[in-house]
Amino acid sequence: MYMRRPIGYWCKRLDRLIEEAFDRAFGAAGVSRRQWQTLNVLGHGPAGDDALAEALRPFWDGGDVPMTGVIADLRGRGWIERDPAGRHGLTPGGRAAHARIAEAVAGIRATVAQGVTDEEYRVTMDVLRRMTENLEHVC
């Protein structure tokens, strides 16, 4: 049965289900996807405006990164602050929020990969990457 459906069906279906799962998790945590992405980038260490925008660009479809509102909201929650060098960084409350949400994200990722071996996952990711590259050259 599964072979009767084209790859586009399965990619779209999986993407939709992943989006729904993450939306539920972020909603339960009281954050938007953009806020999570910002917290996650800053979870790796402080970043200035340009570095943060560059790290977030892929999540904003490669265009301008409208960080002002996201930064203001996270700062208002007391989760991020600027250091003396002007970089954004997580506060202790921000690190706690990041860790809590990261746990939910890890749970979703584990659910997605349930019953899939590490080798199957690696091969799937490689095949999807190559198929994407094939189409990037013609689109």
From TrEMBL:
InterPro entries: WH-like_DNA-bd_sf (IPR036388), WH_DNA-bd_sf (IPR036390). SUPFAM superfamilies: Winged helix' DNA-binding domain (SSF46785). This is Winged helix-turn-helix transcriptional regulator. It comes from Actinomadura alba.
